[in-house]
């Protein structure tokens, strides 16, 4: 008989928030899940006019390049809404910005009006950054707070091909858990014919029945007898949490036999898969165990570091073994270096095959915050007293 891939447990949001132990009751193993994965829709692209700009840094460079090439990439563009004293009230971000046009500012010929195409960040607190009375406008910057100048006003021209509201998002189907064998309170609710079946969490299992990662939470709304076996049922769950991305499927397949015992299994993954691999590695990290002592030497296998995600997959394994975690970005790596994540600084990192990362990191355009470059990683490690030896 094939091992079940999922486990359904009772879910109590308040108990989980309070960190209570032992509240979850195992309700059912499930052979398969249908409609589990969902990738978020790509953000709609919009056109924005930055009016009355005084340009600095990379924005000035992009402006010059756009004049020659027709357009130029910017990456993350941050607009700080200023109060009348010139202090920042709130930040508003445009992801994957690109300069597509410019012209003299009608109000001040010493300034420029710049047209950019971009996507509004999902983290923005408002749909449009309104300046208060007497405000001088906006302060502009890029990733890492790199100064790009100022602009006096912002105009949103249009978003996408379907008008300001964009196309309506398709409704996601309910999640169906197939071949379930209910027990406990769920079995009692089904036998009693209750309509309220309760709140539940779905956990992804490996072939040995161990939990790999939580998948989704929601409300059980219906059931039918299952075609997968006598006494089994198919359950319908309406998720209220975010569903795992499609990339989760490829990662969970690689963890099916258990936590990887060989290094570089993550290298088989797509870029999205590598990103989810880091989430899976974090979930399976045992936090709080003693670090190896300062002065330890770690060996970083750089053969597959073709993007920033690959670097963090590789350093997680260098420090904590196959399937290990040691940060998924510079901020998280910095947190790990504070201790109780496997390695105590200072230490030595021997970076084998470093020429691959030197060639690949930071050169491919990405949406949103620009990925870290090879040189920035070396600077970061030097600041943290990590002796990096390139091999």
What is the topology?
Blueprint: E1 6-10, H1 13-17, E2 26-34, E3 45-55, H2 57-69, E4 72-82, E5 88-104, E6 112-120, E7 138-141, E8 147-159, E9 175-180, H3 184-191, E10 199-205, E11 211-225, E12 233-239, H4 247-254, H5 271-283, E13 297-301, H6 308-320, H7 330-336, E14 348-352, H8 354-360, H9 374-383, E15 387-390
Parallel strand pairs: 13-14, 14-15
Antiparallel strand pairs: 1-2, 1-10, 2-9, 3-6, 3-8, 4-5, 4-7, 5-6, 7-8, 9-12, 10-11, 11-12
Helix pairs in contact: 4-5, 5-6
Describe this structure in words.
This protein is α+β, with helices and mostly antiparallel strands and 391 residues long. It has three domains: 110 residues; 115 residues; 142 residues, Barnase, Chain D (2-Layer Sandwich). Helices cover 21% and strands 33% of the residues. The strands form three sheets. Strands 1-2-9-12-11-10 form a six-stranded antiparallel β-barrel. The chain has a six-stranded antiparallel β-barrel with strand order 3-6-5-4-7-8. The radius of gyration is 25 Å and the shape is globular.
């Amino acid at each position: 008989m094939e091992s079940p891939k999922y486990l359904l447990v009772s879910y109590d949001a308040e108990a989980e928030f309070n960190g209570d132990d032992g509240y979850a009751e195992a309700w059912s193993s499930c052979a398969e899940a249908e409609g589990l994965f969902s990738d978020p829709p790509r953000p709609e692209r919009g056109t924005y006019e930055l009016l009355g700009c005084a340009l600095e840094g990379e924005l000035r460079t992009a402006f010059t390049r756009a004049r020659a090439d027709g357009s130029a990439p910017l990456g993350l563009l941050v607009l700080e809404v200023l109060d009348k004293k010139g202090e920042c009230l709130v930040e508003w971000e445009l992801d994957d910005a690109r300069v597509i046009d410019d012209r003299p500012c009608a109000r001040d010929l010493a300034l420029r009006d710049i047209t950019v195409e971009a996507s509004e960040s999902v983290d923005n607190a408002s749909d449009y950054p309104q300046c208060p009375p007497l405000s001088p406008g906006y302060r502009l910057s890029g990733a890492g707070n790199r100064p790009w100048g100022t602009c006096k006003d912002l105009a949103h021209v249009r978003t996408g091909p379907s008008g300001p509201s964009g196309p309506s998002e398709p409704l996601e189907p309910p999640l169906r858990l197939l071949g379930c064998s209910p027990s406990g309170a769920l079995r009692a609710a089904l036998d009693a014919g209750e309509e309220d079946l309760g709140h539940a969490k779905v956990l992804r299992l490996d072939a040995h029945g161990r939990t790999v990662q939580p998948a989704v939470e929601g409300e059980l709304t219906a059931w039918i007898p299952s075609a997968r076996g006598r006494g089994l049922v198919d359950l319908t769950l309406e998720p209220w949490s975010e569903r795992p991305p499609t990339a989760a499927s490829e990662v969970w397949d690689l963890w099916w036999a258990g936590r990887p015992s060989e290094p570089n299994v993550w290298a088989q993954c797509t870029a999205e898969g590598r990103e989810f691999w880091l989430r899976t590695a974090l979930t399976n990290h045992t936090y709080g165990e003693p670090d190896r002592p300062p002065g330890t030497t770690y060996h970083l296998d750089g053969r597959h570091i073709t993007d920033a995600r690959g670097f963090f997959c590789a350093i997680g394994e260098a420090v904590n073994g196959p399937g290990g975690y040691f940060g998924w970005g510079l901020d998280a790596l910095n947190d790990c270096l504070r201790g109780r994540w496997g390695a105590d600084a200072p230490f030595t990192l021997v970076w084998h095959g470093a020429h691959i990362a030197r060639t690949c990191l930071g050169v491919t355009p990405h949406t949103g915050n620009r990925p870290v470059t090879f040189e920035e990683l070396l600077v970061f490690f030097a600041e943290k007293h990590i002796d990096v030896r390139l091999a």
